[in-house]
Specification:
There is one protein chain. The chain is an alpha/beta fold and about 300 residues long. The protein has 3 domains: about 5-85, Arc Repressor Mutant, subunit A (Orthogonal Bundle), CATH 1.10.10.10; about 95-160 and about 270-295, 3-Layer(aba) Sandwich (D-Maltodextrin-Binding Protein, domain 2); about 165-265, Periplasmic binding protein-like II (D-Maltodextrin-Binding Protein, domain 2), CATH 3.40.190.10. The chain is built from 10 helices and 13 strands. The strands form 4 sheets. Strands 3, 4, 5, 6, 11, 12 and 13 form a 7-stranded mixed beta sheet that branches. Strand 8 (about 205-210) and strand 9 (about 210-215) form a beta hairpin. Helix 1 (about 5-20) packs across helix 2 (about 25-30) and helix 1 packs across helix 3. It is elongated. It starts with 6 loop residues before the first helix and ends with a helix.
């Protein structure tokens, strides 16, 4: 075996450059100079006989060879990390953990748990992105994503964290102005607050004479996240179909009222933590995070 270079060190430098989007941020993260990191990557490319990164003044783009080497490097470094931890089991999980979560789950479920998680795992650095759009875990360099709703057959690993009921709700002010819908057919006279992006099901399922039908209720505004739908529903702009963990306190305090309960099919929305398959060598920080969520997430 050649001893003239630190191969894992070169891999780690390459992965940092890709993850952080440039030589300068990677250099800061590694405690090196940008020129030193650039030389490491050039040495790596020379050894492999392939260009891995196309450099431009604005951004770095991986070549096909770079994409393959990045994917393999991440796996090898994860295996190395897991091997070291299995031997030194007393060491706590550490390193950056990238998490994507939709806005309502992030604000109501995940963020309240962050202090307890970091107190338990002080060497883990959480990087949390909150968006209601579904991200590509590989392209966005994301370790774990919390996703609501039915799971697609995407090849991702998933762990169920909980489930919650879905209700159609409205504010007392809205119902005073537009009346209370008593049957699904009444929805033609009503308005809704909707989502500004495509969802698995764009309408609302309601039961009529034992059959479930989908009703689409137009409205004056569409927004990009569940918290905004919730806020505008509270403000009386329209009906909304929301998860019970978002509305339970409002219903209890009379700020929102469920409607069309007789036609509610009793749909349940599940919450999953999804992650890339790691084989038998999942990094300790990811395993610790998944186990922590499984123990502490409560959706009511």
């Amino acid at each position: 075996m050649r001893q003239d270079s630190n191969r894992f060190g070169d891999m780690e430098a390459f992965v940092r450059v890709v993850d952080l989007g440039g030589f300068s941020p990677a250099a800061r993260d590694l405690g090196l100079t940008p020129s030193a990191v650039s030389k490491l990557i050039s040495r790596l490319e020379a050894r492999l006989g392939s260009r891995l990164i196309n450099r431009s003044t604005r951004k770095l783009l991986l070549t096909p060879e770079g994409e393959l080497f990045f994917e393999r490097s991440v796996r090898l470094l994860a295996d190395l990390d897991d091997t070291e931890r299995s031997i030194g089991a007393h060491r706590t999980p550490r390193g950056r953990l990238r998490v994507s979560v939709n806005v309502p789950v992030g604000r109501r479920i995940l963020l309240p748990l962050v202090p307890k998680f970091l107190a338990q795992y002080p060497e883990v650095e959480l990087d949390i992105s909150m968006t209601d759009l579904v991200v590509d875990l590989y392209e966005q360099r994301t370790d774990v994503a919390l996703r609501s709703g039915p799971m697609k057959n995407s090849g991702l690993m998933a762990r169920k964290l909980g489930e919650t009921r879905l209700d159609i709700v409205a504010s007392p002010a809205y119902l005073a102005k537009y009346g209370t819908p008593l049957t699904p057919g009444d929805l033609v006279h009503h308005r809704s607050v909707g989502f500004g992006y495509s969802r698995m099901m764009d309408g609302w399922p309601l039961v009529i004479d034992g059959r479930t039908e989908i009703f689409t209720v137009p409205g004056p505004v569409k927004v990009g996240d569940g918290d905004s739908v919730h806020r505008l529903c509270l403000d009386g702009l329209g009906l909304a179909r929301l998860a019970r963990y978002m509305t339970a306190d409002d219903i209890a305090q009379g700020r929102l009222l469920p409607v069309l309960e007789e036609g509610n099919p009793g749909d349940i929305e599940e919450l999953h933590a999804v992650y890339l398959g790691q084989g038998g060598h999942m990094p300790g920080r990811i395993r610790a995070f998944l186990d922590f969520l499984g123990e502490h997430v409560r959706m009511g």
